[in-house]
Amino acid sequence: MSKASAGPGSISDIINSVIDDVVEIRRHIHQNPEVSGVEFKTASFIADRLSVLGIPHKFHINRTAVIGTLQNGKGPIVVLRADIDALPIVEDTGLPFSSVNAGVMHACGHDMHAACLLGAAEVLDKIKGLWKGTLVFLFQPQEETEPGGASVLIESGAFPLNSDSVFGLHVNADHECGTVGVKKGIDYAGVLAFDILVTGIGGHGGTPEAAVDPVICISNLVMQMQILISREKSPFFPAVLTVGSIHAGTRRNIIPETASMSGTIRCHSSDYLRDIQKRLSELVVSSCGSFRCKAEVTYEKPYPPVNNNSDLCDRFTKAFSEFAGKENCIERPLPTMYAEDFSYYQEKVRGLYVHLGVRPKKKKSIPALHSPHFSPDEGALATGIACHVSFVLEMMGKKGVHAGGSKE
Q1: Is the pLDDT of residue 116 over 50?
Q2: Top CATH class, 190-299
Q3: I need a surface site. Which of 157, 239, 277, 406 has the fewest CB within 10 A?
Q4: Collapsed DSSP state (helix, strand, coil) of residue 139
Q5: Given a cut of 90, is residue 73 above it in pLDDT?
Q6: Are 320 and 390 in contact (CB under 8 A)?
Q7: How far from chain centre, in Å, is Cα 342?
Q8: Per DSSP, which regions of 200-300 are E strands?
């Protein structure tokens, strides 16, 4: 890795000295996943690791969040964030450290995120002679469920609003292991989550005329909702409406009383999300009324889009390129339609969220995020640690110090 590998005691050497332990940390977290809101054992495990490192820390959000603080003289306050929750997915990877919690899996890489940040904490503690200020290691729960753990930490006062900057990363199979993708400005989409309950009149399947069938109503509604995207916005403005869940009925010969669906709308404009929320409610009520059904629409607080600070992008790109080589820092031309509650932090302080490549080298593709087969390359753990360290040294490093650990 270019300059980082030069000389004894370089940062690359220090990362290599901790990487075996970081792999074991990732495998432990992967094998013991917990869904949003119940990350108690995960948080306790992380707290124990911080204790071993001698980093003071506190629990938050009913002991599902952990925030460690490393003070090292006067200087800026920088927050490094990792999410820690898993998903309600049955794992099918065949890994020897597959999930032991039935129906729960780290299918979004949060085990990788947490391990990278713990590894970075150890490395940064070892190189305190190269930086000054206060580091905040934020291990956040509930990223996968709205309104998200980030907003709760902000509202509770746990997130330091006097921070100079906040940094995070997310695994991404778009990029090869050893590389990082960076997108200036709007990157991840904002997301509006909705739930719809349709109420009719239940009855026997053999006498539909005596009932009001909510299944027919909600089936029609799924298709009608798509006109909000295809016919009520410009084709040059990207947006996506997804229905991810539909539930109705208990037996094949019973017309149920109710049917429900849940979904999301994603785009890169908070204003558009507010507008489409109004239109979705209007469409649902009018459409269901035409089927003689009643409808109720509820919404979760929408995530705003991730908006990466331009200056931080430039500074990180320079620092990481010095460490790993310019070819390994990739400028992303387009934003993604994934959503991230990291955006709440960016509304309070300037922030940067990058894409950590996890696709094995020479492979064109791997199973996607949120797939039961998702299995990122663990070689990316060292790169993830390097991302955190590069950002910190750029923001907090003594003058002339770069990620290689030497002076210019």
Answers
A1: yes
A2: alpha beta
A3: 157
A4: strand
A5: yes
A6: yes
A7: 7
A8: 203-204, 239-248, 254-255, 258-267, 294-299
